[in-house]
Specification:
Helix content: 40-55%
Shape: globular
Number of domains: 1
Strand content: 25-35%
Length: 244
């Protein structure tokens, strides 16, 4: 069984639409969808944003389900000039900002399958080191500094912990994420409206009401997220068929 993890439901709703869902439920602060995708059994997990939520969801999933491989996905931030919005990035290694002494390595077979799948689908893609951090990286200067310091192409807030759980349980894993924001894009406004489990939470709604000028930009971001979600669903459906 493949387990697919992403932070918020908007990132994986395209995948969920393509699944034949048998059951869905909330446990603690995360949501799980059980079903099949292209005829193969999968679980889809919306963990919530951040490493702590990823740990809770990941440990629960591996204790409850017969997981044969893990896919960490959802959007990421680009950390170098080559990584453009919409590009899919394959993590060759997964690095933890807090502790670089243990670098984790995705399964080479899964990397090869994903690379071939992205090429087959005509989706722009690249690869490199992926970095997991504890705080959202919105400012270009911070993203550039992280990219240079860790020689990384992408940043997210969950992949290292999911990779760690996979490694500890001898489960092959893969990290594939489309770039939401390029290294030079300032996403400060997103910090004010994105909740840990959803795109727009109550405090975010209050921010929009007080700052109506941000609405157009937010609508553009929402459209971008929708497009990336569709591409991610296309990739995931192909990937599930290839690895099964």
């Amino acid at each position: 069984m493949l387990a697919i993890f992403a932070a918020v439901k908007q990132e994986i709703q395209g995948v969920a639409k393509q699944m034949k869902i048998k059951n869905t439920y909330r446990h603690s602060d995360f949501r799980i969808f059980e079903g099949t995708l292209t005829g193969h059994e999968v679980i889809l997990v919306a963990t919530g944003m951040g490493w702590q939520k990823a740990v809770l969801a990941g440990e629960y999933a591996v204790s409850k389900y017969p997981i044969s491989s893990i896919l960490s996905t959802g959007v990421c931030g680009g950390l170098d000039e080559k990584s453009k919005t919409g590009d899919f990035l394959l993590y060759n290694t997964v690095i933890n900002e807090e502790d670089t002494s243990t670098i984790l390595y995705p399964d080479k077979r899964l990397l090869a399958i994903a690379n071939m799948g992205l090429s087959k689908l005509g989706l722009n893609h690249g690869s490199g080191n992926g970095l997991t951090v504890k705080k959202v990286c919105s400012l270009p200067d911070i993203k550039r500094e992280l990219g240079a310091r860790f020689n990384a192409v992408a940043v997210d807030m969950e992949s290292y912990q999911l990779a760690q759980i996979a490694t500890r349980n001898n489960i092959p894993f893969l990290v594939v994420r489309p770039v939401f924001d390029s290294v030079n894009e300032n996403l400060t406004v997103i910090d004010n409206i994105v909740g840990t489990n959803d795109f727009l939470h109550l405090k975010g709604l209050a921010y929009v009401l007080v700052h109506p000028g941000c609405v157009k930009g937010l609508m553009d971001y929402r459209k971008r997220a929708s497009t990336l979600g569709e591409n991610l669903a296309e990739f995931t459906s192909n990937y599930v068929g290839e690895i099964s």
